[in-house]
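Severity: low
Component: inverse-folding endpoint
Summary: output formatting inconsistent between runs
Steps to reproduce: submit the following structure tokens with default settings.
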């Protein structure tokens, strides 16, 4: 047997009633109620069928009941809407085969969109096609612009790389030459001077320096080979000629020709040195002196 007072207090606590509640305190203070007993089976039956908010949320039977009540209303509303729009006959086979109300809604919405699109396209097919064509053209233009942008970047990088490669090759060509440096310039400054003079000569002649697989070639601005006096001119020869003319290229010391005395073919006097000059003058004076009889 269970004590009635304890059973009432437990039920009050399960219902969230505070122990300080005046009505609860009044009931439990009565000796008749607090000391009374009731069968355990009755208390178990009461506890099994009464629940608080949390237990009600987790009760599967209540969950099933309320979901059915809610979704039956959704199903009914959906069917009424489809019937009003005249689309039910086209959709009923799809939604009737589905038991889940949420999936029925998704299928119905999808089907309605398809029907609406088809219905709209019948009256505005031309307009929609024009819009599709415009959008397609814009997409193609965007793709073309992107492709052109990528190609532009590729061309720029290729051009920059080619320019650097040509610059290194030109530096190597000039460094192979013995540039004259009477003023003791730094190598970079001397190379820059050589480049400047060659560049000015190219501009003056209307020639260009063209890098090919065979090296640098001298060409006209039209891209043809340069001829002077009916002979082809290489870029290397042209550059050497310019540098020699501007005193920027070293040359081997020329062999000085020997001079001969105009009256004495046997005597050979070197053409340099103070002593040699003095001896030559002395010999000439001796030859021109009057004879003694």
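Observed output (run 2 of 3):
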């Amino acid at each position: 047997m269970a004590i009635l007072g304890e059973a009432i207090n437990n039920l009050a606590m399960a219902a969230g009633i505070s122990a300080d509640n005046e009505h609860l305190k009044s009931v439990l203070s009565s000796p008749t109620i607090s000391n009374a007993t009731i069968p355990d089976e009755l208390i178990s039956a009461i506890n099994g069928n009464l629940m608080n908010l949390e237990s009600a949320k987790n009760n599967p039977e209540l969950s099933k009941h309320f979901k059915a009540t809610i979704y039956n209303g959704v199903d009914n509303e959906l069917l009424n809407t489809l019937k009003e729009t005249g689309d039910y006959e086209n959709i009923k086979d799809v939604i009737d085969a589905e038991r889940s109300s949420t999936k029925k809604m998704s299928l119905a919405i999808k089907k309605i969109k398809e029907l609406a699109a088809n219905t709209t396209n019948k009256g505005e097919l031309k307009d929609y096609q024009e819009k599709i064509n415009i959008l397609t053209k814009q997409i193609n233009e965007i793709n073309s612009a992107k492709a052109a942008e990528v190609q532009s970047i590729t061309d720029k990088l290729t051009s920059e790389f080619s320019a650097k490669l040509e610059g290194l090759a030109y530096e190597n060509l000039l460094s192979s030459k013995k540039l004259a440096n009477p003023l003791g310039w730094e190598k970079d400054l001397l190379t820059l001077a050589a480049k400047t003079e060659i560049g000015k000569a190219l501009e003056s002649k209307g020639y260009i320096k063209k890098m090919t697989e065979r090296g640098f070639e001298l060409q006209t601005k039209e891209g043809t080979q340069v001829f002077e006096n009916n002979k082809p001119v290489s870029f290397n020869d042209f550059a050497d000629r310019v540098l020699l003319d501007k005193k920027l290229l070293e040359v081997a010391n020329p062999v000085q020709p020997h001079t001969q005395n105009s009256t004495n073919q046997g005597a050979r006097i070197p053409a340099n040195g103070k002593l040699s000059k003095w001896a030559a003058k002395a010999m000439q004076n001796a030859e021109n002196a009057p004879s003694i009889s």
